[in-house]
Amino acid sequence: MTSFTKTLPQNEASIYTSPDHAIADINPLMYGGFTEHMGRCIYGGIYDPTNTNNLIDEHGFRTDVIDCMKELQVPVVRYPGGNFVATYQWQDGVGPREKRPKRPELAWLGTESNQFGTDEFMLWCEKVGAEPYLALNMGTGTLADALAWLEYCNSEQDTYYANMRRANGHEKPYKVKYWALGNEIWGPWQVEQDTKEHYAKKAHQWGKALKLLDPSITLILCGKNGHSDWDRYVLQESMQWIDMHSIHMYTYGKEHCENVTSPKAAERAIEMTSAMIDLARCDFDYEGFMSGHIDTSAKKLTRPTICFDEWNVWDPSRAPGDKGAEQLYDLSDALAVAVWLNVFVRQAKHIGMATIAQSVNVISPLMTTERGVVKQTTYWPLLLFSKYMRGKSLATHVCSAAYEGNTFPSWLASTMDLPLLDVSAALSDDGWVNLAVVNISETEAMSTTLPEVTGPVQTFVIGGKGSHIRDSNQEGAESVTIRESCWDGRGKFTFEEHSFTLLRWKLKACRVRLI
């Protein structure tokens, strides 16, 4: 949560935060990833068995990609889609590879070889150190298919699909916790697009059956963008069995400030989705009261959270989805990703999970080549956030001038504050205050009064003086990285133009209370 006071451009900026003002725990699942059978994400991305440059392990997994995922401390990875999942038959991707059928792939109009499937994904997650998160096919798939996949992954019983897993060499169940009830069912690009009324009824019945088979799982409802009637309706009609509500959003802008402020639309979507969750809970409780059946179990007292399981900067004109969506990111995009992550930290109370779309090659911070991996500009804010912005989210107050130009979406300017300094703060469990600041101004550095700090202060900067907003990283020429230095904590701090800065200082004495 960040409050804002707008000042005149000539006035000096200030930021206030305090370790005493913790507002919510930051869920580590906020830094999740996503791998879809799309473009070069799976084949040539995480799985590249024909690579001849000593970059794969005995399973054909790219070891350089695994190392990057470990460096980012990715806690959870969504799979296998995305739009791909609407025609995916999970049974095609298990068992001996030579017996796996090739299938037409209708989401991106390709051919799916099924050489990488459930068991390979589980092994890859184990190597990365991430939990698997599976999306169910609610397009061409059936409830029987979904129950079979859950049984294959999680059951310890002496039953058909559990025994199929054992026959495929995996005695112990995978215990997959996170399961999505479809993907973007509302979209006209989907195979088996559905109405909100029919989907809500179907999701309720699927949820009931899946939790009969395994009550321990976490179910994620298919939402839209967080501010639609689809979101409202499916929440109100499917509340009983779900644990999270999924929303998706991609942001971009042709001009720098339009691009960097665009993620603020996600902040408004989170606020609106949170209100719709509360509305659905109120309706659910009222109906129970009127019928005389009030569920006072611990489950129903738990408030569902938001699963933001597709988010990123994406300009489809620069990276068309049907051409593999390999977007070359620049410094402006890196700053936009930092604003996205600031949004999640500020809204930590409502976020149960967030997974960037996607983790490798497809609108991704990582791009593979035959010779290695390129860390795009957007990799570096992800690294700083995942490494340091953990623990508790802190309330902050910002005084600065505001951006007043064009926005995407157009309603953003009249709906949200757009300070030139976009800020979040966190208190780590080991007593470090972490202050994340994006100076979105393309041309102006900002001298800023900060809260009292105990120097020395670790300083990490991406972009800023000497850089250009269109700087990018390519193989053999990575111009955008992290500059690290130390500040004594005295006086004002200057946030350089078009930069992301992370300041860290250790508390001498730490006391925290939630407000």
Structure report:
β20 and β21 form a beta hairpin. It is built from eleven helices and 24 strands. It folds into two domains: 3-21 and 394-506, Sandwich (Immunoglobulin-like), CATH 2.60.40; 27-390, Glycosidases (TIM Barrel), CATH 3.20.20.80. α6 (229-238) runs parallel beside α8. The protein has helices at 63-71, 118-128, 143-154, 160-167, 196-213, 229-238, 256-261, 264-291, 298-301, 331-346, 379-388, and strands at residues 2-6, 13-26, 33-34, 76-79, 103-105, 110-112, 131-135, 178-180, 218-222, 244-251, 305-313, 351-356, 366-368, 373-375, 391-400, 421-427, 432-439, 446-449, 457-463, 473-474, 477-478, 483-487, 493-495, 499-506. It is α/β, with parallel strands linked by helices. Belongs to the glycosyl hydrolase 51 family. One of its GO terms (molecular function) is alpha-L-arabinofuranosidase activity.
With helices defined by DSSP (H or I, 4 residues minimum), what is the helix count?
Answer: 11
The computed structural class is alpha/beta
Q: How large is the share of residues in beta strands?
A: 25-35%
| Rg over C-alpha atoms, rounded to the nearest angstrom | 23 Å
- Say what the CATH topology of the largest domain is: TIM Barrel
Mean pLDDT: 94
Amount of helix: 25-40%
Distance between the termini: 11 Å
Q: How many strands in all?
A: 24
CATH architecture call of the largest domain:
Alpha-Beta Barrel
Count of folded domains: 2
Shape category: globular
Main sheet characteristics: 10 strands, mixed
User: How would you name the CATH homologous superfamily of the largest domain?
Assistant: Glycosidases
CATH class of the largest domain: Alpha Beta
Low-confidence stretches: 289-294, 510-515
